[in-house]
Amino acid sequence: MPTSGPTLGYVATLPVPSAPGKPVNRVLPPQPLRSAVVIGGFTVLLYLVELVNSAFFHGSLASYGIVSHRVTGLPGVIWAPLLHVSWQHLFSNTLPVLLFGFLAMAIGVRQWVAVTVVIWLISGLGVWLTESTGVSTVGASGIAFGWLMFLLVRGIFNRSLKQLAVAVILLFYWGSALWGLLPNVDPEISWQAHAFGALGGLLSAWLVAMANRPARTAGKVVA
């Protein structure tokens, strides 16, 4: 109810705390079951696409991947991570997709979706710009490399010992995968997809660290 008389203003002697932000040093997803369902559903989608490709199209859908330097090959940026050359190709990508994708959801599903979109686009456009002409590039490994790089560097940006410890474990078990970033290691493997996916993961980790940085307020005047 309004009152008459002068309104007095007060100056806080201590900073007024801002709204509680998201923990930036989380290692596991805040909602593990939901995250498992999301990454499991994505993996099931990959298997369904490969089933349709092998059963009804005899593997020909792989030709609709990223075809570099051609405008008609640009739509492959969207579809390529969902397509694979063979069941063996998909099997080799399954565990990295499940593990890295799940751990990357420590930032929450919404931010994870944004991170994945950044990695997806940077990896695909990088392939389109730099891969040999006339080659159709497919597979989810570029996305997996992006998630891996995101997990490796987020602890540095966040100054989190927990996340750095996870990075050390990932390097111990998956360090050999980083050879996939080097040109001409295997002519049948797109190092461009891996390298640009990793670049997308690095950029995403920096963007997330900036977005989650807590606001520091020296003081606040309240009335």
| Overall pLDDT level | 82
Portion of residues within helices: 40-55%
Query: Total strand count, please?
Result: 4
Question: In the CATH hierarchy, what is the architecture at level 2?
Answer: Up-down Bundle
Low-pLDDT residue intervals, each spanning 5 or more residues: 1-21, 215-223
> What pattern of helices and strands is seen along the backbone?
EHEHHHEHHHE
Radius of gyration using CA atoms only: 22 Å
Overall body shape: globular
| CATH fold category name | Rhomboid-like fold
Structural class: mainly alpha
In spatial order, strands of the major sheet run 1-4
Supply the CATH superfamily name: Rhomboid-like
CATH class: Mainly Alpha
The number of helices is 7
> What is the strand content?
under 5%
Biggest β-sheet strands, sense, barrel: 2 strands, antiparallel
The domain count comes to 1
Terminal Cα span: 16 Å
Domain Peptidase S54 rhomboid: 77-209
Protein name: Membrane associated rhomboid family serine protease
GO molecular function, one term: serine-type endopeptidase activity
Pfam families: Rhomboid
